[in-house]
Amino acid sequence: MKPLRLSPRLAALFVLGVATAFSAAERKPNVVLIMADDFGYECVTANGGESYRTPNLDRLAATGMRFERCYVQPLCTPTRAQLMTGIYNVRNYIEFGLLDPKATTFAHLLKRAGYTTGICGKWQLGKDPALPQHFGFDEAYLWQHTRRPPRYANPGLEHNSRELDFSNGEYGPKLISDFALDFVTRHRAKPFFLYYPMILTHDPFQATPDSKAWDPKLKSEQEQRDVKHFADMTEYMDKMVGRLVAKLEELGLRENTLILFTGDNGTGVQVTTRFKGQDYKGGKGTRTARGNHVPLIANWPGRIPAGRVNDDLVCSVDFLPTVCEAGGAKVPAELAIDGQSFLPQLLGQPGKPRDSYYLWYARNGGRDATFEFAQGRTLKLYRDGSVYDLVKDPFEDKPLRTAALSGAAADEGRRLQAVLDRYAKARPEHLAKHKAAPVKD
Fold first, then answer.
1. Which helix (H) or strand (E) holds 192?
2. Contact criterion met (CB below 8 Å) for 421 and 381
């Protein structure tokens, strides 16, 4: 039998095809991190929420993994600082509306690992036009970067720091979604990291383009504000998540894309949601679970087992090491991050779940925390010595004292005290002396 002889052109195509297949098999995963604004755990139907329709999030949960114990800071900028740096606020938080210009972010690390990096949505981390690129993002399409115009109907946005004003009935979340779809389309040939801190569902509570009350002529965030619109805003946010998932599927990228969805803090205090048969009042800015318990949904077809519910503790500082491990990006030891990767759990392995997390919260920075605690699986211990049994008293109505603990509870109390002791002198002196003027959220 004579050997098969290919023409030079066919041989070249064959080699190219093999190389392309090998490249696709070895290619690093795309990573998409979506964070809704002022959106607590209770708002997702898959978590037990009964007031809103979230079919796209529910589908991601059903075909992926949802976490029941994800905790962040009770306010936006503090969470963003932890999420992007993997470091607790006590060590690097300057003031509200600002990220330390010396900080190393997950965008820096993934960019060094060969990723194209993009951010779209809410910024609120400093007004210098160069900051998004300074923090490692190749492209940026943002609200509240250099200024603070309306964000919903007829918004003002910034594309790579260039100010854009819209006045023909455009809707900010849709424009930002359009950028996200364009970003993944243009960069589909190489690994990309898209950080998508959404501007929904934050007050002002206004009608969306899908609402009967939608008014394309609105010019101000003070018009048409009513908490009744929160349901429509939630559904529109979910719709934007669905648009992005659909685009990744259309581009053939879905099986090689890790999607993480979370919230930046609890739901606004104006919002009451029906949750597991009871009314659940939002607690943004407060120290209980109402202020910092948020959804976490992860989806990666073929890699994350479908339909899993995970009970491990996850904190906002854990996202940086997780996305970096997924993308093969090294986290320098000198950063001494506080986070730990939960990628093993995502892949169906036991991993090394954290047994506690730490929270230092001071909205405007400075020396002293408004509140500070260490939380484990069943107890929460504050710096002042008050402790709460989160199983019997999840919203902290009945403070205990550590002296009243016994057995396993006493052991957990001692472990939490060790966490507080570890961070007792962690606040850098230059940050402790910093005085910031209050900024509107």
1. strand 192-197
2. no
Average pLDDT over residues 195-209: 98
Amino acid type, 29? P
Query: Are the C-beta atoms of residues 55 and 282 closer than 8 Å to each other?
Result: no
Burial of 330 (0-12, 13-18, 19+ CB in 10 A): exposed
52 located within any domain: yes
Give residue 100's domain range.
28-354
The count of domains in the chain is: 2
pLDDT value for 403: 82
Q: Please report, for residues 49, 71, 144, 160, 325, the alpha-carbon distance to residue 123 in angstroms, rounded to integers and kept in the order given.
A: 28, 21, 6, 12, 25
Q: Rounded to 10 degrees, what is the CA torsion of 114, 118, 123, 126?
A: 50
Is residue 365 situated within a structural domain?
A: no
Say yes or no: 249 and 332 in one domain. yes
Residues 302 and 412 in one domain: no
Distance (Å, whole) CA 9 – CA 353: 54
Residue 124 contacts by C-beta under 8 Å, 6 or more apart in sequence? 76, 77, 80, 97, 144
pLDDT at 95 over 70: yes
Angstrom CA distances, 206 to 50, 157, 171, 373, stand at: 21, 18, 11, 35
pLDDT for the residue 15: 40
Residue 383 confidence (pLDDT) above 60: yes
Compute CA distances 165 → 133, 152, 253, whole Å.
Answer: 21, 12, 32
Region 325-350 average pLDDT = 98
Residue 63 CA to chain centroid, in angstroms?
20
Contact 386, 398 (CB under 8 A): no
CATH number at residue 134: 3.40.720.10
The pLDDT of 99-121, averaged and rounded, is 98
Determine the 3-state secondary structure of 262 from DSSP: strand
How many residues are listed for the chain in this entry? Answer: 441
Q: How far apart are CA 381 and CA 390, in angstroms?
A: 10
Q: What angle do CA 36, 42, 46 make, to 5 degrees?
A: 90
pLDDT, tens digit, 9 for 90 and up, residues 389-419: 999 999 999 999 888 899 999 999 999 999 9
Q: What is the pLDDT of residues 5-47, one digit of tens each?
A: 545 554 444 443 433 333 444 789 999 999 999 999 999 999 9
pLDDT digits (tens, 9 = 90+) for 342-376: 999 999 999 999 999 999 999 999 999 999 999 99
Mean pLDDT within 254-261: 98
> Given the structure tokens 């890699």, which residue do they identify?
303
Q: Are residues 149 and 42 in the same domain?
A: yes
Close Cβ partners of 212 (under 8 Å, ≥ 6 residues apart): none
